[in-house]
Amino acid sequence: MSFSGLLGRKLGMTQTFRPDGTVEPVTVIQAGPCVVTQIRTITNDGYEAVQLGFGEKKHLNKPERGHLQDNGALRYLREFRGSVEGLEVGQRIGPEVFEEGSRVDVSATSKGRGFAGVVKRHGFHGGPKTHGQSDRHRAPGSIGSGTTPGRVLPGLKMAGHMGGERVTVQSLEVIKSDPARGLLLVKGSVPGARNGLLYIRSSAQAK
Asked: With the C-alpha atoms ordered 63, 69, 75, 76, is the resulting torsion angle positive or negative?
């Protein structure tokens, strides 16, 4: 099967040992089981993609029941573009789509941090701590010049809502793929909170 994409749930972090005794920090991911709920083809849709369902939902509305039919009450539905060769609706897939040693990109919604200032949000150094500057320790400083251009330029780094954005970490190594337990161990950290939804696919850098 050429398809390499999966939905999962972040369980947390731990550490594991390589055969040579090296300790590696890993994120434990509940990778699937995912159900193929729809297949898009060039003939019918103009592109190739597969829609996967993951997780359980207590109640489905009528359109959801009609779309999912006998594939279960699935909570999340996400689409992965790419080859659909060897896939069919109702098929269940899990960690076996990724081999140990391969590289994956993991996307998720980052933890929300609320309204944050420029020091926390963008890493600004703040103002001087002396010479009469008693209230400028965490201020942004100048946000633009006066007469020219006489306005604040778009995209300027300022205080505002932090987190709660889609973040992708690329080229994480798969340390262990455990289809029997439905687990995937990847080196390093991945975005989002514990139990958050993860979007896992083969690394774009490896292609």
From this structure: negative
